[in-house]
Design a protein that fits this description.
Blueprint (H helix, E strand, L loop, with lengths): L12 H6 L18 E6 L5 H7 L10 E4 L26 H7 L4 H4 L3 E5 L10 H21 L3 E5 L23 H22 L4 E4 L28 H6 L6 H11 L5 E4 L10 H18 L5 H7 E3 L1 E4 H4 L16 H15 L3 E6 L23 H4 L3 H11 L30 E3 L6 E4 L3 E2 L5 E2 L2 E5 L2 E5 L4 E8 L5 E11 L3 E9 L21 E3 L10 E7 L7 E9 L7 E6 L3
Parallel strand pairs: 1-2, 1-9, 2-3, 3-4, 4-5, 5-6, 6-7, 8-9, 10-17
Antiparallel strand pairs: 11-16, 12-13, 14-15, 15-22, 16-21, 17-20, 17-22, 18-19, 18-21
Helix pairs in contact: 5-6, 6-8, 9-12, 12-14
Amino acid sequence: MTRLLPLSGTVTFASVALCFVSLNVIAVEPRVSTRTRIISAGWNQPTLDQLARDQNELPKLPIDGSVVSIRTETNPPDLFSVAHSASPWDASVFESATEILETVHPKIAAQCYLGLNANPGDVDFFDDEGWKQVTEHWRIAARLVANGKLRGIAFDPEAYTLPHSQFQYSAQASAASYSFQDYAAAARQRGRQVITAVNKESPNIEILSYFLMSFLVNDRLMMGPSPVNSAGQRRDDFQWCLAGHQYGLLPAFLAGLLEASDDSVTFFDGCEFGYWMESRSQMIEHARQVRVSGCNIIEPEVRSKYQSKVRLAFPIFMDLVTADAIPHWTLNPAETDRLKVLTNQVRWAQQSSDGLVWIYSERGRWWPEATSTALWNGKDVFRDWQEVLPGCNDAITTALQASQELVQDRTDDQATASEPALNLPSNEDAIEVTPLNDLAWKAVIANSDATSDGSTTNARIEIANQQVSIVGPVGGAATATASVKAGMHYSVKSQITQTGRGMPRLMVQFQSEDGEPISNKRQLPTQPSGDLFYAYPEDGTPSESRRCILRFQPPADAASAIIFCLVTDAVTADDKVTFEFLNQ
């Protein structure tokens, strides 16, 4: 849920830069909702103590409810932020929470979700004892939801405690001993295990996950390639894509949740990448992708449940609506009327969702100042959003009331995909492309990383002529620098072969004439701009040679391009990827 998206694999792109089977598409029909609910989440979401104290303030706010945290006399004070750990919990620490829940009005409780994170995420899917504890943590959450008459659980699958990453194959402790398929089967079993415990405590629960398949329907530089193609069909290298994706085990875990859940359990995919979408057409198209392509990522025998049980929610990132909170991510920065930007984001999110919108924020708050009810009293105290953006409360309420349109209106807009293709346009033959040949490659060792068996090593980087081989667990990359000119199109062509595991990619970053990195450009994760491009190998058989072509157009102030070839998600010393750079 946080804006700081972790990178997949053991080497981070930032650290390197500092160093210099095809299936029929199954459509999922959107659901008509007579009224859209809107909830808050983020750094300043209330604790249960604050919800009880300030519940009479809620009717004054432009939201129906909120994600809430439960403060306990433990370290950390929010145990559910580390629910995916093998540490046993003393259930008695939640007794006061049960008492507080009794003081919350049922109508308010019914619009609130208990937050639960998949962190630290260091429990291997084959660890029976560890998953016994993880399941117990979910069971405790479900019991609190049921006893307090809350609406459900807000699940955050994102990895915040790297190198641990719950749904990443290469991060599993025994990845060297088991195949991806083995781990997918184990993850599916754990999903069944978790939801069975949840069902017993709260059979009518609603589970809002900030993302599910929405994180896998498009290629992502920071996470990995999508296992489905632009037509929504599975790629030939479907399993390979998932094995190298930071959330590649999430589809199997979701399959387990779906197949063992009671009929009355509902899931929401929170479509977190909606944070950065700047038009109705982007959100509409992303919703279509999640319904169609997301369904095809799930195993066939579970797709009917995906269709019937998974609904879509869309987010609004308030900090990006303001003009200066996170400048390189500001939405529609040319628009001076920021309330108009907010109004549009609310309307589009409502029109794309299945009756639920969530507003995420970091540097502002909806609720009164938390004071003694905060998780950490006095930490991260920010201004009321009404002070940061005067008129925002009325803007949200008015926009929501005015946009209760039928779902079929959404499907009238079949415009651009949520993440534009990074290759050249279809008329690329008419564009003059300058090939970058005979590049001078050099190894860049970024860091030492622990392998899955506990040893610490660097990758071995071998460079010979126009071949770069990266062998073993990743600890570096190879780079080459080329002079470029703004307005021109360039390409780097390679042929990739690999043995074992690992996710190869090419990417480019730019420098100004004085050698400074160009890092202040506007870079929305859903719309990579001219100063950041990347490429994965083309679809095909992973054991055979495959093309990987990087195409890019430098921004106006770029004088040189730094080309990176790197590999993430390798597991053992036998894993090897070779990039052979071809003259064009």
